[in-house]
Every structure is written in structure tokens, then in C-alpha cells.
Design brief:
2 copies of one chain form a homodimer. The first copy, chain A, is of the alpha/beta class. Chain A folds into 2 domains: about 150 residues, 3-Layer(aba) Sandwich (Rossmann fold); about 80 residues, Putative phosphatase, domain 2 (DNA polymerase, domain 1, Orthogonal Bundle), CATH 1.10.150. Chain A has 9 helices and 6 strands. In chain A, about 45% of the residues are buried.
Chain lengths: ~250, ~250
């Protein structure tokens, strides 16, 4: 049981009960980066170049929902063989190119567009907050994105990870327990020495069930202005913060 | 076959035939860091504190030779069950503490000393050279060191890796082919788009057999002044450089 109940955010003092935490691992899509805004932006640029009238907001939302979220659920149920996130994204992209009447792209162009998920932009507070946090903690993504995706994304956006933890390393997908266990096992830490930071309550609940500490950073714009919102934080989450700068303050960095 | 035969080192022009290389992966112990000097230094400090007369050069060399090199060979032969480098190091440390008559250390002190391998210092040219190379290439260790060891070492010494590739991820040890295949598979690259950089000819030969490009950076002081030397470079190695700064020059960064 966490000994630091969810309390209102304050600038200080830092939460001493979290002193045992040595590593912070982060959900990435939505939590660290604005996947929706980034995909829409590249889609619009592609549309202008090809002279297409496509609803790129709908295109991005469908790609994410059907091609990633639902597809991961199918892999976890055994309805699809295991494949990494790049392969899942490509599967859905091929279907949507046809459904949206986008024709004439060369294979290299389709592959490039599929890798838009490697080129997502961080939220404005992400890199400044992580830069503060890295003085005290080992920082890593803990994401269902592929290993190459997470590596390329960090290099492009200068995200200061200390290592890359992709669930591809254990051929599992969050919220499988194997995904969370990988984090503390590879870092040679106890579960309570690792905190998952995420914008998604379900991810945090699964991490907590595996013994990890939990940091909730809601991202109200993940699904766009007026988009669906995550639920109120569980009372059991260890830290709730409005962004990564606030999280750094709460954790004493 | 490499199309860039081993040629004398020159400041420029960069070797155009290596244009396909997108990632550089590095052997670590001996190639990036001075394991011997670092272990001796911490050993001497421990000896002073405990008032011990121990030959720390011999201690370090034996720990490395028996506890790591020979032990990895035994794991690869199946004479020892798979365990990561920290466990191999600890196994030998326990034996040597007894053999050298070093008694009275608390468990936490032994564990700390075992992690001296997480606190190795880079050669003076390593971080400056990598800092140049990272503008053009994805950089990663490709080491038999444990994932936590490589992560902690990089954080302490500010080694600018983009990700951490430990052979622990595939429960293999170099020179097993699985170790080299992991590198290009996880980075989603073809074998010839990845170059192994190492101070050890045997490592490079095994990488080359798996299709990787090869960069040889001899480290004549790895085993101390007057210590044993690696053989002359194979004619088949793609690049030979005296240090990481020279390697950066050869690769056009």
C-alpha cells in the first residue's frame, strides 16, 4: 500500500515518503508527447502536397484507436500474433490509405508516414521537467511503442532518457504484468523503487498492482480540445501533478 | 564483403563507402571505459580504509579474467546456468574476498564494491568522441554488461547513448550471433547499417560474420602499461582509428 495518499499539489516540501524511488518510467503516447497534434500536422502537410481533402483529425484518431489501442487488445487476447507497434501501425495505415482514397504513394513514402509515430513532439513541459528530474532519478520510457520508435523519438526531440524500455523487449503489451516487471527487473530495483508516470489511470492501476509507485499527470488535450477526459485520480495514486515541471517540484528536483 | 578496406588513418575525406551506417554500437569494457584503472582505484581506496595490503592490480585482473571472461565462456558452454554480469561478478568477488583474506565487510559494502563495474571511468577521448558522433549516428553500447550496469555507468559518466543494448536482453553473451542480431533487429536496421566499434578483434570478427560493419579502436593500455596487446587489425575491418576522436573524423562528424 502506498504510504503517500494523493494530496493536493503543493510546491514544497517534496514528498519524503517517496524517498525510496530511484527510477521514473514514463508512459509516452499522450503522457510525454502530443501524438494527436503531431500526426495531424504531418497528415495535413502530406495532404497539401498531394492535393487531398482528408479529415486528418479523424484519420489520426482512427489510426490511434483502431490501429493501436484496439490492435494491442487483439494481440493480448491472442486474436492477432505478436507484432511490434510499427507493424501494428503499418497494418492500419494500409487499411486507412485505401479507405480514405489516398493513392499513389510510393512504398518509401508510406514507410516514412508510418514512422510519423517516431517523430512526435513532446508537450512543452516534458523536456524541461525531465531535465530537472534526471538529476535525481534514472529516467526511461515504459511504452508499448517499439524500441526503435522510442529511440528515434528521443533522439529527434532531445528527450533525456537514461535508457529505453519498450515492452517489445518482452514481447508483451501494457497492461500485462510482464511489462511492468521488466522495468524493475532490468534496472535491478525493487518494484517500490520504480514509479510509473502516466496520463492514464488504467496504466497506473496495473503498475500499482505490480508494486510500482504511481504518478498521475493528466493531459486534458491528449484527444484535442473538448476531447474525452481521463477519470479523476484514484486516491491510491502516490503523486498527482499538472505537468512534468510540477512533478519535478513534488519530487524535490 | 566490406567495400572499405582497412586503410591508414587520415583526417579527411570521410569514408564515403560507409554512408549506409546509421547506428554505431560499442563494446564497453576496455573500448569505452578503463575497467582496470577504475577497479584498481576503488580497490586501493577500500584497502586504505580497511588497512589491508592487497595487490589490487592482481585482484582486478583476476576478477576480470576468471569472474567475467572465463565465466562467460562457461555460461556459453552450458557449464554454468545463465546469469547476468552482476551475478557473475559477485560470484567471483565472494571467492576472491576469501582468497585474499578480506574479511569483515557488511553485505551492503560487498554489494557496493561489486558495483564498481557500474562506476568505471571512460577513456579521456570517449565522451568527446561520442558527443561528435551522436550528431550523425544512433549510439548504443552493445555489451555483455548487465542492463542496469550499462545504464548506471552512462548516467554517472555522462556517456551520451541513445539507448542501452545489453546482451542480457536476449540472455546471450557475445560472441553469440544472437547478441549482434539483437542490435540491428531492435533498431529496425539492416545488419550493414550497424557498425560495431571495439578494441577486441574477436568481437569484431563475430560481428562481421553477422553482417555488421566493423570499427577497430585499439586500447593499448586496457591491461595496463606493458600489458598484453590485441593483434594487428584484420584487413577486413572497415575502419581503424587510434581513439574515438579519430573515429569521429573518419566517419565525417
Amino acid at each position: 500500500m502506498p504510504d503517500a495518499p494523493n494530496t493536493p499539489e503543493t510546491a514544497d516540501p517534496p514528498d519524503a515518503s517517496l524517498d525510496a524511488v530511484k527510477a521514473l518510467v514514463f508512459d509516452v503516447f499522450g503522457t510525454v508527447v502530443d501524438w494527436r497534434g503531431s500526426v495531424i500536422r504531418e497528415g495535413e502537410a502530406l495532404g497539401r502536397r498531394l492535393g487531398l481533402a482528408v479529415d486528418w483529425e479523424r484519420f489520426a484518431d482512427e489510426w490511434r484507436r483502431v490501429g493501436y489501442r484496439d490492435a494491442i487488445a487483439r494481440v493480448r487476447r491472442g486474436d492477432l500474433p505478436w507484432m511490434n507497434a510499427d507493424a501494428l501501425h503499418r497494418r492500419q495505415l494500409d487499411a486507412q490509405l485505401q479507405a480514405y482514397g489516398i493513392a499513389g504513394l510510393a512504398e518509401a513514402e508510406i514507410d516514412h508516414f508510418n514512422r510519423v509515430w517516431h517523430r512526435l513532439d513532446p508537450w512543452p513541459d516534458s523536456v524541461p521537467g525531465l531535465t530537472r528530474l534526471r538529476h535525481r532519478f534514472v529516467l526511461s520510457p515504459l511504452s508499448n511503442g517499439s524500441f526503435a520508435l522510442l529511440t528515434n523519438m528521443a533522439k529527434r526531440a532531445a528527450i533525456p532518457w537514461d535508457c529505453i524500455l519498450s515492452t517489445e523487449l518482452v514481447r508483451a503489451y501494457k497492461p500485462d504484468a510482464a511489462a511492468y516487471a521488466m522495468a524493475h527487473t532490468l534496472l535491478n530495483l525493487a518494484p517500490h523503487e520504480v514509479m510509473l508516470v502516466a496520463a492514464h489511470a488504467g496504466d497506473l492501476r496495473a503498475a500499482r498492482a505490480c508494486g510500482l509507485r504511481t504518478g498521475y499527470v493528466p493531459r486534458p488535450l491528449e484527444h484535442g480540445p473538448g476531447g474525452p477526459q481521463e477519470p479523476e485520480p484514484d486516491a491510491a495514486f502516490d503523486v498527482v501533478a499538472t505537468d512534468f515541471e510540477a512533478l519535478a517540484g513534488r519530487l524535490g528536483t
